[in-house]
Amino acid sequence: MIDKPNPEIRVLILSLDKALLNQNGEGDTLIRFQEYQKACKYFGVLIPTTTIIPKLHKVDKVKLIPNYGKLPFLAYWQLYKTAERICQEKLINLVVTNDAILGALAIWLRSRFPIKVQINIFGLEIVNSQWLKERPQNIFLKWIQEWAIIRADGLRTDNLEDKRLLTGCYSVAPQKIVVIPVSPSLERQKAFMFAKIDKLFKKSLAGHKKMILAVGSLVKAKDYLTLIKAMWMLKQRKFDIRLIIVGEGPEREKMEQSIAEYQLNNAVNLVGSLPYQKMPLIFAAADLFVISSTHEGLPRSLMEAALVGKPIVSTDVGGVKALIKNRQSGLLVKQKNPSHLAAAIEELLADEEKAERLGRSVKKEAKRLLDFNLGVKKLVRSWRELLNSDKQ
To answer: Membrane-spanning regions, if any (predicted)?
Structure first.
C-alpha cells in the first residue's frame, strides 16, 4: 500500500472569537492556533469586527487579521474580500470556520479557488426548537447553516451526539465528520486541576453560605431564568445558599427583574465577567457547579468544572454527556424544569459524600477525555486527509 503524501497546509481560519483581537495575546484559542501553525506553511485568521482595531498582529507565525465594518454585514463583506485576496496571494488550500454565515462565505470562496472547506459544529443548535424561538433571524441562520453543512468537504464536532444528529438529520456521511473536543491547553488544565480554595475570596463571594456556580454569557440559551426559579424553590426549603453567575450578556436585565421578583437579592449574585486568570479561583471556591442550558455543545465551563473536580448538575443537552454520565459523574436533569433542577441541587447539597464522589469521578473522566496534544494531532490529521481526498 502506498502512503499518501503529507500536503502543504495553507489554512485560512474564519473566526468570530473577538478575544483574538486583544493585543495581549491572552487566551486558549491563540495557544491552540500556535500549535496548529507548526504543521502549516501558512496560517491566517480573519475576524469580522465592528470595532476599529489599530493594526493586525502576529504571534508565532499566526497572522491575526481584523476586518472592520460599521455594521456586522459590512464586516462580513470586508472579511470575504480579504479572504479572496489571501486565497490568491498565499495559495490557500483549506478554509476552516464555525459559523453559519462564515461557513457560507467559505463555500462561496470554494467556487473561486481550489480549496477544501471544514466547518466546525459546536452545539448543533439548528435542530433545537428552543433556539429557533429565541430570535426571528434564527430561522434564516438555520437555512444558511444547513446549506453550508451539506456542501462542506468536512465537518468537525466536539461530541458524539452532534455527529449522530448530523448523520441522522442531514445524511452527512460519517467519514466526513471528525469528533475532537476543544480541550483547554495543558497550562490551563493544570491551573484548574491544582486550583486551591482561597477562603477569603470565597467568603467575599458567598459569605459562609454554600456556593453554587454558573458560568456563561447571559443569553437565552443558558436559561438562567429557570436556574433562578430553582434557587427560589431551594430558599423556600430553607437552604442557606448563594448562586454566583459569571458572565455578561443581553439577558441581564430580565435576570435582575426575576431576582427581584423572587426576592433573591441576597441569594443570587451576577458578578459580570471575570479576568481569565481568576477563573480557576472561582471554580475552586464553588461547592457545586450548575448548567441550566437549553442547548450546548461540550461547554468550556463544564470542562473547567470537571478538571477542578466539582460536583455537577446539568441539563441533559448537547455534548454534556461526553463528560457527565448520570449518577456516575454528575446529575442530569430535564431542560426548562426548575423543579427537577432544584431537586438535583438539593440532593447533592444534602449528601456531601455523594457530591465528593461524583466530583472525583468527573475529574477522572475529564483527564481522560481532554488530551490537548492528541486533539491537535487529530485535527491536523483531519486537515491532511481532507487535502488528500478527491475534489468534489
So the answer is: none
